[in-house]
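INFO  loader      accepted 1 record
INFO  loader      residues=386
INFO  predictor   begin
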Amino acid sequence: MLIIRNLSVQLRNRLKKSPAIAILGPRQVGKTTLARDLSSDYIYLDMENPRDVAKLQDAYTFLESLQDYTVIIDEVQLLPSLFSILRPLIDAKRTPGRFILLGSASPELVKGVAETLAGRISYNELCPIGLNELSDNIGFEQHWFRGGFPESLLSENDSFSKEWLDDFIVSYVERDLAKMFGVDLAPMLLRNFWSMLAHLNGNLFNGESFARSLGVSAPTVNRYLDFLEGGFLIRRLQPWFVNAKKRLIKSPKTYIRDTGILHRLLNISSYNDLFGHPAVGASWEGYVIEQIYQMKAKQTELFFYRTQTGAECDLILVQGITPIACIEIKLSNGPSVSKGFISCINDLEPKHKYIITPKSETYPSSNDITVTNLKNFLLNILPQIQ
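INFO  predictor   done
INFO  writer      dumping tokens
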């Protein structure tokens, strides 16, 4: 089944203007397939293939000979020295579309990468398949339960989806994450930490508490969290406290970004079982936040808001230092407005206020709050308020 990725139009435009573009995102998300579709005249190099790595022993001479092609370099973070070679190649001939670099690690965590190609490369994140990218024969229930990784989402049945996700998790724990960042990681510690994050999905992150439970130091916990976030697997949602007059929570919340991975870490076997699990509310909350992230404008940032007295707003859309929308995320399709949400609205005074549910109709509620379903918010509301 062919899924047309929203990012493809943006990438084609950038490829016409920039000598190099980078497509970043977790492994197995479809970066290679998308890159191959962007150019009909390309040379493909995979930095996990020893034969391709051997071709780059004299990388400058080899790549210079390919200046009439688009060169796709996959898992480029595995050879960080390549970035210093790409810089003079690009400066010598700034033809648009010379290089497409694919990476599974955030450039901020790969030493020297972020600075080397500054001003010469366009960075683009490819997320797992989003709700707005689904074909008509895939419902949001399947998408929420299986997540957005193509092999999981498009599996013939839930059993195949679970097998693929289990293999994916084991691969990341035992090999991938350590290899991507060139570090030594303890697989059992990483698996336990990832599992703990899943059970506390959507909660405030307390490094000291995790460290005590895992029997390691807080710096070690924070280091592992950085790698999971740098591998596009975890989201740290930061609190909003600009110009605030109240005492506020200042610790971030953490989410497993893909709900398919979340549900496997929690050993949830079916969509029906999800609704009997204590984590269902947090799963829905993380799912909504991730879908909004995928469709937000570049200038829009995401935060949450919580006071020391317990008033909380699940998600705030911010531009500059101005909150433009406060959002409460509810699993119920007939939600009531909480006093805590009203308190946050009074504190922040946003122009727009929403409660997002799975399938409710769109209607006005009290305090000028609009209740709507996620799909309508993504397609019809979000583009209008940014």
